Input
Amino acid sequence: MRKKIIEFRNVSFRYGDEGPWVLKNCSFEIYENEWVAIIGHNGSGKSTIAKLLNGLLFPQEGEIIIDGEVVNEESIWNIRKEVGMVFQNPDNQFVGATVQDDVAFGMENRGVPREEMKKRIIDTLAAVGMQDYRLTEPHRLSGGQKQRVAIASVLAIAPKVLILDEATAMLDPSGRQEIMQTVASIQGREKLSLITITHDLQEVAQADRVIVMNSGEIWKEQTPREVFSQKEALREIGLDVPFVAILAGELKQAGVAISTEPLN
Ligand code: ADP
Output
């Protein structure tokens, strides 16, 4: 039986006591070794979900369970050992003086033994193609290189859950494809639950399942093929025509057959 790693149970969230509800009664489950893409119009609640998963925020209503533990102020330190997260802006994620210090940081916090740390620094930097930059100061790196290091830092903590919130946005299309291939192969090998919040269509096409958000609610939870065969409905919830039209092509390239009649 597949192991359930994440569960959102009737989760509602708002910023502050008076603000509008930005997540409304959301329930979903994510399993071990599963890749789920979360898509939706701007402001639909995607990043809020990511922050709730990492205990940067807590829900006012409902429950979030990660690897059998309810997420709350006490459990979050434990849970963060299992959840790695990379955001869009890599500049906010650097703490070390060199690339290798940076990759080491998360492991030091989690008490990884020194020899194991050295090995993981080498392995994860190689996995993202940054092995030659171990001693470089992070601020000297390009946006794309910073993002690679941020991903290596998170992989080094060997999480059960990896969340990429627009994390490949700074990369060019070929770099993005390359790094997602790396992440996908690590995901399969380590049986990670991978959650990608993305506008990148190839990433969406590669996921096992897609959660489509609309104004704080889960609109659909389907395979990429099912979701993107509903172009009209997607348009109605603010996923614009270019997005859908391009996606049809991407799905085709990824070998997913869907109807591709022209959009007008
Ligand atoms: P998405 O990632 O889909 O663009 P977000 O989760 O960032 O959506 O935002 C959902 C809603 O919450 C939006 O209406 C946004 O304006 C609001 N929001 C996000 N962050 C904050 C914040 N720190 N304070 C108040 N409102 C916020």
In short: DSSP finds ten helices and ten strands in the chain. Residues 15, 19, 22, 40, 42-48 surround adenosine-5'-diphosphate (CB under 6 Å). The radius of gyration is 18 Å. Residues 260-264 have pLDDT under 50 and may be disordered.
